[in-house]
Write a sequence for this structure.
């Protein structure tokens, strides 16, 4: 069902323009609702009415709009967007339009065009030659880019509410540790299968606690089971995963027995050193030095991963992207076609990813700390569920629900 | 009025115009001079002349230049690029003559008195082929009057003044089939007495008449029935041959623009 709001003004009652507009809409199989109407009190006063026109298809709507435009009923969003050239590299014009993560359309040369790769807190750049509109982060702006300014000619589409009760409506209630997790995880598993069937990608964002708590083998199973299509993490997760693959410990603690190993505190540094010596994780897998673990599964199953660096990193591993702007771009490259994002035990990377995702992507945030889950929900991730849980027990339940 | 010194059929922007049917400029000059003479000598109308200019042949159709309201002049926004060249010439003339200029937003087409005719205190506004419906709201704001837009339905009668002619505050001449059923209802409610013309008379531009008091100046050759009907209504008909202007889709009314709308309906152009 397509719809558009139009306004008609003037002496629309005496001249029968309004009844004529309504007749034309109905003749073309459209429906309307009168949003408001103001009728002039004296003869010389003009009247005005705002209507929302509905039509079964966009084509029919366009046809109706064309017909009623002739009668002076003009779409409220009639004007084209205002474009201003960026004066400097990496700087928007002062009046730039700041994006939301909802599906957005801009009107350029009389046509509505969807903004590609919508992401919140960015600008919109239009290529005048093709009319192609794309979401552009601040740092990517080149001098002379045509940037959308003001708010005219921009349509932000609210997400349609699913009629059937869906697992992703759960976020409607506050994040709480007091929820039946098994049920939630069962439904999540069903959703993941549906996602995989429809050809959409599932993205995992994970923090190092996942390895410390012993959740690594479950994530590995998810990857090998084909439920992960991209992995975003930091130096920590990769380091401790490799440490556990090489030495059986995570930060010097044996994962099978939960005991600290003598002189185990330097295992992670030895792991980093080993990988740096080999030139990278992929090389370590190829040389059969790295033979199990999450990172091994990623390389073996050709699941792309982005390891983004931070100031507290040891090493880091050669695969870690230390330039944050480059890391953002690398993450963006894998976000296309993502239908679901699962963020486990990660604050920094989860929020960074959440900011990049369109609101249409379903997100799941799992953390032992309710504050982290709430924080992500507060950042405008519309379709999400929050699960307050230890990452290992969450993943254990999830792999079981997926029969892995 | 504007002398047809450079009048010709230079393009085709309505169904009447055909480059194959060129206007005879000498004959056009004679026909125009006759109209000018009738208005000034016979009917005592004071006529002001807009100097003709080469390259804008349709400048003779001054009715389309704009709409005069008191000392305000609302300039036309022509639909076709060929006629848009007239806009600066018209604007300069009215500015020189001491009028306050008002223009409608550029995105709306508006062709002056061609599409806007007073019927008592209401302005009837024809839209679709040359003028755009939303312009009526701007006009209502500028004129502080009721402006009723009616849609024109027949491409041959592309301006309101080709199918509707107010005779006085109550009576009007019209060709009903040039309007759709909504427009017909509006006009029927607006005018107390309507005199319909036949298609043959409409095609002879009977509705494109100049009304000065009780006199009606129009193209010769309208039917005897219409003549009788108008005579019964107390009108005196003055017919003349304007066939050269018919080739461009215009007749008597198109050649004049009313400068003052006073009670005695004296025309000035």
């Amino acid at each position: 069902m397509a719809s558009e709001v139009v306004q008609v003004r003037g002496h629309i009652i005496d001249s029968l323009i309004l009844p004529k507009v309504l007749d034309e809409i109905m003749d073309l199989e459209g429906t309307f609702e009168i949003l408001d109407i103001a009728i002039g009190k004296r003869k010389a006063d003009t009247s005005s009415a705002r209507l929302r026109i509905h039509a079964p298809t966009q084509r029919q709507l366009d046809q109706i709009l064309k017909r009623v435009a002739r009668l002076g009923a003009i779409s409220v969003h009639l004007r084209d967007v205002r474009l201003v050239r960026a004066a400097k590299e990496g700087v928007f014009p002062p009046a730039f339009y700041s994006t939301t993560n909802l599906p957005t359309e801009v009107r350029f040369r009389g046509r509505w065009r969807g903004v590609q790769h919508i992401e919140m807190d960015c600008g919109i750049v239009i290529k005048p030659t093709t009319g192609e509109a794309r979401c552009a982060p601040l740092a990517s702006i080149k001098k002379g880019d045509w940037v959308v300014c003001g708010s005219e000619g921009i349509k932000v589409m609210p997400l349609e509410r699913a009629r059937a009760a869906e697992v992703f409506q759960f976020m409607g209630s506050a994040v709480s540790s007091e929820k039946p997790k098994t049920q939630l995880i069962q439904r999540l598993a069903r959703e993941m299968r549906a996602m995989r069937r429809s050809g959409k990608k599932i993205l995992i964002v994970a923090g190092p606690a996942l390895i410390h708590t012993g959740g690594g083998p479950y994530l590995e199973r998810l990857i090998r089971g084909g439920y992960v299509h991209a992995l975003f993490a930091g130096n920590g997760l990769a380091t401790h995963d490799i440490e556990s693959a090489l030495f059986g410990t995570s930060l010097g603690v044996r994962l099978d027995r939960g005991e600290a190993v003598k002189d185990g505190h330097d295992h992670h540094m030895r792991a980093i050193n080993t990988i740096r010596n080999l030139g990278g994780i992929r090389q370590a897998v190829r040389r059969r030095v790295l033979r199990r673990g999450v990172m091994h599964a990623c390389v073996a199953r050709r699941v792309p991963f982005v390891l983004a660096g931070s100031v507290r990193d040891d090493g880091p591993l050669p695969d870690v992207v230390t330039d944050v702007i480059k890391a953002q771009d690398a993450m963006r490259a894998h976000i296309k076609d993502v239908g679901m994002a699962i963020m486990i035990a990660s604050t920094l990377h989860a929020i960074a990813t959440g900011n990049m995702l369109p609101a249409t992507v379903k997100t799941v945030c799992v953390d032992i700390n309710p504050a982290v889950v709430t924080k992500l929900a507060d950042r405008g991730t519309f379709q999400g569920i929050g699960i307050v849980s230890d990452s290992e027990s969450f993943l254990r339940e999830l792999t079981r629900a997926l029969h892995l | 009025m504007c002398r047809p010194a450079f009048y010709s059929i230079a393009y085709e922007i309505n169904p009447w115009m055909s480059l194959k049917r060129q206007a005879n400029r000498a004959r056009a000059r004679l026909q125009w001079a006759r109209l000018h003479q009738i208005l000034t000598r016979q009917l005592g109308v004071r006529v002001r002349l807009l100097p003709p200019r080469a390259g804008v042949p349709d400048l003779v159709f001054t009715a389309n230049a704009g709409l005069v309201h008191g000392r305000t002049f609302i300039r036309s926004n022509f639909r076709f690029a060929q006629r848009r060249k007239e806009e600066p010439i018209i604007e300069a003339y009215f500015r020189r003559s001491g009028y306050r200029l008002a223009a409608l937003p550029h995105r709306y087409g508006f062709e002056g008195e061609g599409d806007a005719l007073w019927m008592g205190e209401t302005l009837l506004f024809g839209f679709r082929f040359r003028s755009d419906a939303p312009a009526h709201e701007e006009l209502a704001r500028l004129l502080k009057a009721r402006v009723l837009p009616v849609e024109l339905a027949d491409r041959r009668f592309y301006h309101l003044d080709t199918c509707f002619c107010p005779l006085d505050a109550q009576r009007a001449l019209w060709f009903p089939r040039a309007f759709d059923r909504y427009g017909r209802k509006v006009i029927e409610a607006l005018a107390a007495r309507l005199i319909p013309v036949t298609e043959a008379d409409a095609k002879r531009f009977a509705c494109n008449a100049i009304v000065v008091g009780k006199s009606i100046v129009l193209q010769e050759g309208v039917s005897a029935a219409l003549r009788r009907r108008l005579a019964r209504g107390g009108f005196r008909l003055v017919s003349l041959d304007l066939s050269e202007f018919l080739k461009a889709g215009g007749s008597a009314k198109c050649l004049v623009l009313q400068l003052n709308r006073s009670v005695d309906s004296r025309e000035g152009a």
Remarks:
- The two ends of chain A are 41 Å apart (CA to CA).
